[in-house]
Amino acid sequence: MKKSIKTFLKHPTKDFSNRSANPPVTRASTILFDTMQELYEHEKKIKKHKKISHYSYGRYGSSTTIELENILKELEQAFHVFLTGTGFGGVALAVMSLCRPGDEILVSDNVYGPTKEICEKLLKEFYVKAKFYNPDSFEDLKKKVSNKTKMILVENPGSNTFEFQDLSKIVELAKKRNILTFLDNTWGTPLYLKPLKLGFDMSFSSATKYFSGHSDAMGGSLAVNKKVFDKIMFFYKLSGYRMSADEAYLIIRGLRTLDTRLDQHYKNTKQVIDFLKKQKKVKEILYPYKPSSKNYKLWKKYYAGATGLLSIVIKSKKKASVIKFVNSLKLFGIGYSWGGFESLAILQELSSSKKDDYIQGRQYYRFAKDEHIVRLHIGLEDPKDLINDLKHCLRYIK
Prior knowledge:
Helix content: 25-40%
CATH class of the largest domain: Alpha Beta
Shape: globular
Low-confidence stretches: none
Number of domains: 2
Order of helices and strands: HHHEHEHEHEHEHHEEHHHEHEHEEEH
CATH topology of the largest domain: Aspartate Aminotransferase, domain 2
Radius of gyration: 22 Å
Structural class: alpha/beta
Mean pLDDT: 94
CATH architecture of the largest domain: 3-Layer(aba) Sandwich
Number of strands: 12
């Protein structure tokens, strides 16, 4: 009997030995075999990408990480899923596995800060040139493709500013030029968008966010097709980018309720947006909620749902008053990351002069100096309480 993905997430794996509803946490460095012949045969199975229940050495993972790989493989419709110890580790795994001296990598200008930093700074030391394109202009992307372009790296929607791109056009262009494609799908998750089915070679999600859902685990998921599998596996085995069994267990736990949580995040977000769009102090809401907008149309074209992360644009000549607004919120925590049960708020500074570990300056930035971006993650609290909190604190903006 074929099960829906919602049912699959509730019943993917159990511990039949101990009769537990959850898989065991298997921590291991040494994996034991009865004979040398068994060890040799098992390594052949791994090399041929056969189904396995354990690896031959702990650096590659354990039975617990394999359980998570199999769940995500089904969710992503992937040939294989690589797990990393942090979300960003999945991005680093992709670019370090595939880019070589003399290559160029085309990167959407609105990507996550550390993604921009690894492409702009670290790859440069390996003689790989990064070019950044305007996420609002497919023509700009086309213009920057060259015979040296190895990969197009896309984040959709864009980090903090939430531009949506026409993904099929990017895939079509890349296939014509034999260019590899990578999509950061953390916002939409493979529940709402399956990049590999669209034709992308790699689909990345920060498992720290919605997969975990409880703000207590870190990890990355890089789902790939057969074309790039061998090269990434080569680097993965050497680099030691593996995820721990404990983190894998927590992420499996989170995935059980992924669909239910995302449904509620979206319902809460819609109610909060209905309030925010009536506020004079909020100039713009960066989220696909207006049917007439380009971003809404592109979201609707590709996604089966939306999640709880958005930004608001506040126009004020007094930045201190915007900071006071954020500081005064009682139900919105101040901190990096998102995707957990709790609501969060953070002021993001994205202008070209701003550079730190998390935010790299934008080359294509349409907002004025007195327009401030506050990113909100709408959690699972009662949306009426969140709205009252925002309403009370908006009065501090001058």
